[in-house]
Amino acid sequence: MHDINLEDGDILAKQKELAEKNRDKLSLHGVRAINVMGAIGSGKTALIEAIHDKIKEEVRMGAVAGDVAGTDDYERFERAGITAYNLNTHSDCHLDAHLVDHSLENMPLDELDLLFVENVGNLVCPADFPLGTDKEIVVISVTEGEDMVRKHPKIFSQSDIVVINKVDLSDAIGVNPEKPRSDYEEINPNGKVIFTAATKGEGIDELISALDILEN
Amino acid sequence: MHEYSIAKELIDTLTDQVDDEKLSRTKKIHLELGELRIISREALAQAFKLVTEDTILSEAELEFEEIPLFARCKECDFEGGVNYDDDTSLHFSVPVLSCPECGSSVEIVKGNELSVKSLTVEDGEQDE
User: Fold this and answer.
1) pLDDT number for residue B126
2) CB B114 to CB A11 under 8 A?
3) How far is A5 from chain B (nearest CA, A)?
4) Which of left, alpha, beta for B34 (phi over 0: left; psi -120 to 50: alpha)?
5) How far apart are CA A157 and CA B96, in angstroms?
6) What are the structural domains of chain A?
7) Minimal Cα distance from B11: which residue of A?
8) Residues 6+ apart with CB under 8 A from A203
9) Listing from the earlier edge strand, what are the strands of the sheet with B26-34?
10) Which of A9, A33, A92, B66 has the least C-beta neighbours within 10 A?
11) Chain B contact for A189, CB < 8 A?
């Protein structure tokens, strides 16, 4: 028996390469892209809709609706007038760079300034799969309780922004949004925390500002 | 949760860099798994076995070496392991990803690995 080494043993090397290719393609077309990750039902789609509502006159926005199955989010985007593409993984619990590459091939990138890629609802797997976006945000809501950040440190430590959504329900369900905020600040001192109530349009201006959307 | 797709990526990594003849003689695949990688060894081993059944890699078994977290502070001189949140309500220990000295952001130097360290291959005629 003898041992042999590989030139590059990194199993996710290909994923990283594809992500870089996506980034280059987006850059070439002048499109900024944002990976929207988050818990199931935390309000990712509602946030994208709310942002669009505020910026549609100034920014040409598109969205990729990523889910295991179905077209529910895609249809919501379409109804809101957002240039959208539906992306189903069929089994995978996360989007990956290959799937995003596929969606970029099918979107009118020359007609867009900004692209939101809504990832599959999951706080674990998407952390391992870079998509080639410019920013990564993670959305949680008070309805998941106070310990989401502590239970999933990796995805939060890598993110640029955490959005804590549905804060209007905090009192009703007895959850303090300051707890996940301080947990996040502990593991990601450079990340930004934004409180929102997306369906009410609250906190959306702050989020738009944090994402530097209107500064071109 | 996505061990099946990781198993496929692993196989692609191997077939891209090692010829089939060597792969058919491969008995062990030594993997480095960083502490931060949320991957089930059992699920990955099972997925790998399933996907490689009746292939040239069917004799190969996965072996895992965990790589502990090693962080470097972006502000002060600290280098080393981080603190852990041992709150019993969480039922497990969670690494606190900030500098244990000054609380600033850290760069994860080690602990994110998901890679093939080496292969143990049965000697063949060409190896002598």
Assistant:
1) 61
2) yes
3) 4
4) beta
5) 9
6) 2-215 (3.40.50.300)
7) A11
8) A163, A167, A194, A195, A196, A197
9) A2-4, B114-121, B26-34, B61-67
10) B66
11) yes
Residue A54 CA to residue A57 CA, distance in Å, equals 8
pLDDT digits (tens, 9 = 90+) for B45-99: 999 999 999 999 999 999 999 999 999 998 999 999 998 877 656 566 778 888 9
Identity of the residue numbered A79: R
Report pLDDT digits (tens) over B15-41. 999 999 999 999 999 999 999 887 889
Nearest to B25 by CA among B100, B122, B111: B122
Please list every residue in chain A whose beta carbon sits closer than 8 Å to the beta carbon of residue B32.
Answer: 9
Q: Are strands A32-38 and A135-141 parallel, antiparallel or unpaired?
A: parallel
Nearest C-alpha neighbor of A64 from the set A28, A10, A22: A22
Tokens of B78: 């600290």
* DSSP label at residue B81: -
Decide if A125 contacts A37 (C-beta within 8 A): no
Q: What is the pLDDT of residues A138-170, one digit of tens each?
A: 999 999 999 999 888 889 988 999 999 999 999
Using the beta-carbon criterion (under 8 Å), do A4 and B119 form an inter-chain contact? yes
Q: Is the dihedral of CA B31, B37, B42, B45 positive or negative?
A: negative
Give, in degrees to the nearest 5, the angle at Cα A176 between A167 and B104: 100
Query: Which of A6, A182, A190 is the best residue to mutate to test the B interface, defined by the most B CB atoms within 10 Å of its own CB?
Result: A6
For residues B67 and B39, the answer to whether their CB atoms sit within 8 Å is: no
Spatial CA neighbour of A87 closest among A120, A112, A49 = A120
- Helices marked H in chain B: 3-17, 20-24, 41-52
Question: CA nearest A37: which of A146, A100, A119?
Answer: A119
- As for the ipTM of the complex, it is 0.85
